[in-house]
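Appendix B, record 7
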Amino acid sequence: MAKVIEAPYTQGVRDAEKVLAVPSVVSKAPGIVMQGRRIRSLVFSTDLAVICHCNADAVLAVYPFTCQPAITQALVGVSQRPVLCGVGGSITQGERCIEVALHSEMQGVAAVVVNTSIPLDTLRGLVERVTVPVVVTVCAADEVAERQIAAGVTMVNVAAGARTAEVVQALRGRYPELPIIATGGPDDASIERTIAAGADVVSWTPPDIRALERAVMEKARRLAKAQL
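Structure tokens (predicted):
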């Protein structure tokens, strides 16, 4: 039998990968079915290395620039799980937003995501012309959110900071059947509150890649020094 020799940094890498495990409390979320999978957790990232080393059920890939087809293709190809991709809102609107969404759909995304500042006519155009789910990010359970939901979106993504659970609860009370994604917050307690309020899926922000790299290198140095 071949002998396996581990480099000094191997355990450090494993430790970093453990950090990229979604909090286990997320498993309490009921989830939604997308592309034949039950999705309970989303990793909020566009970093391909993080996505590859994370055990989230799906990917929430939203970034503050106009959606680029090359980026979308890379995300879909690397993720090996459903990708919910941002296609517009405050920066990309109108026909350009719809074109980007249609292109993303052809590339294989599981859903397209727009932010709360999306014009209603653009949102209606997306709902009419895109066949994958349309997700709108909301920050409050207000008239803006009501109009966006009335436009026919498939689901909402609640990102309201410390008020997220409160907003989720208000929306769940008004829309019992509406699929709701929501940010989980900083710890298990906040995630549990979000799920208890009515969230179906929890989005999770992973640790900063630079902090992970620093932790791995520090661990590797300690192990290397111990072997001298």
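Remarks on this record: The chain has a mean pLDDT of 89. The domain at 51-207 is CATH 3.20.20.70 (TIM Barrel).
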